[in-house]
Amino acid sequence: MNSMPSVSSELSRLLKKMGCPDGVKPFDRNQIAAEKRQAEIAAAAQHQKRVIEKLMGASGINTHFLECSFDNYVIETEEQRRAVDVAKRYVDKFEELLGAGKGFLFLGTPGTGKNHLASAMANALMSKRYSVVVISVMDLFARLRMSYSDNSLTEEKLIAEFMKPQLLVIDELGLQRGSADEVLWLTRIIDKRLYGRRPTGFITNLNQQGLHELLGERAYQRVQDAVSVAVPFNWPSYRGRKRNGTQADQ
Length: 250
Hints:
The chain is 52% helix and 13% strand. By secondary structure, the protein is an alpha/beta fold. The strands form two sheets. The chain has a five-stranded parallel sheet with strand order 2-3-4-1-5, sandwiched between helices. Strands 6-7 form a two-stranded antiparallel sheet. Helix 8 (180-195) packs parallel to helix 9 (208-226). The longest helix is centred in the N-terminal third of the chain and has 26 residues, at 29-54. The chain is elongated, with a radius of gyration of 25 Å. Residues 242-249 have low confidence and may be disordered.
C-alpha cells in the first residue's frame, strides 16, 4: 500500500507547478513559528519606541548627547575610569536595580562629564528597550505648574506621568528656587517612584553639603534613599579645552 505524500512534497510540487525556481523551499512549522516570533519582537520594539517618543517628547535627551557612549567618554584620570566603571555596572545590573527602585547621583562642577556619562547610560539602556526620560529640574517644575492653569491636568495625572519611565533622570538639580512647594513636589515624585520600584537618577553641580542645604533634611534623605550609588566628579572642567583639534565638551 502506497503511503500518503507528505505535506512538504505536495508543497514542493505546487511550487514547481507555479514556476518557482528550484531553490525555493517551503517553510516548515518551526521556521514559520520563528518568523512569527521575529515579527512579534519587531512589533513590540516599535510599540516601545512609540511609547517612549510619546512620553514627554521622546527621551528628552539633548541631540548633542544622543551620540554619547561609554566608548567616546574621555578618560584621563583614575577617578574618571572609576566613574565610567560605576556607570557601566549600573547599566549591567539595571534589571536588579529596577526591582529595588534604586537610581544614581552624579555630583560635581559644570563641564566634568556628568551629562555625557548619564546620557551614555540612558542610550545603553534604551538600546536594551528600557524606557528612559531625562528632564531638567526646571522643565519638571514647569510641567507641574501647568496644573495650576489646566483643570484637566490633576496632580494625580502629573504624578502618573512621571511614573511611566523605567528610569527618570532629573538634571540640574539645584537650579530650582528651593521653595517649599518645589521641595514638596520633588519629595513626592521621589517617594512615588521609589516605592513604585521606578529608579530615579540625579545630576547636580552641587556637592553633598550644598544639596543638603538646598533641599533640607527630609528631601535630601529621600534622594539618598532613592540611589544605590553617588559619584563625585571632582576633576577640572572639559569646557574650553581642545582635544585632538576638537572641542571637548562633555
